[in-house]
Amino acid sequence: MLRNTKIDVEGTKAFYHAYHQITQGCDCIYCKNYVIATELLPNAVKVFYQSLGIDPTKEGEVSEYCKNEDGSHLYGGFYHVKGRIISGPDCWIKTSEKVSHLETNNLVEISGIKFGFTHGVSLLLDGFPNPAVQLEFEGNIPWVLEEKA
Question: What does the alpha-carbon distance between residue 68 and residue 136 come to, in Å, rounded to a whole number?
């Protein structure tokens, strides 16, 4: 279940509006594909991102994990949101003092993409408004580039 959060949608949206696309910080084929493929995300996922003020083509940390048999690719990563967590399970569980793992039972699926909030904020960009929380995501994204991975 997604955590109960208090989000400043307009503050988040203002940051993303002013920031550059992911591909301006990384020109790898996987990020290029991801940015273009965000146009094909299910409407429910687009609405979810919009409800938080997130532009999924910008700022986030995006990683491609593997190619699936159907040609899609498993991606994961995170975005930052201006706000704070009120209650609910964290999607990252500490297993020892220095080790954590993504707890998939604490993720919510929206049209095939899994999401969860965490207190742990990584790689927060200078100028991102505080307080900030992190939205993790994981899901299969279609391969849309003519160039093969």
Answer: 21
Task: Domain count for the chain, please give it.
Answer: 1
Evaluated on CA atoms 112, 24, 63, 126, the torsion sign reads: negative
Is residue 149 a part of any domain in this protein?
no
Assess contact for 125 and 12: CB atoms under 8 A. Answer: no
Run of H or E including 12? helix 9-18
Please identify which residue in the block is written with the tokens 């742990």. 120
From first to last of its 149 residues, the chain has per-residue pLDDT tens of 455 778 999 999 999 999 999 999 898 999 999 999 999 999 999 999 999 999 999 988 999 999 999 999 999 999 999 999 888 888 878 888 777 778 777 789 999 999 999 988 999 988 999 999 999 999 999 999 998 87
What one-character-per-residue DSSP string does 15-82 give? HHHHSPBGGGT---HHHHHHHHHGGGS-HHHHHHHHHHT--TTBS-EEEEEEE-TTS-EEEEEEEEEE
This prediction's pTM: 0.90
Answer whether residue 148 is part of any domain. Answer: no
Q: Which domain holds residue 86?
A: 4-141
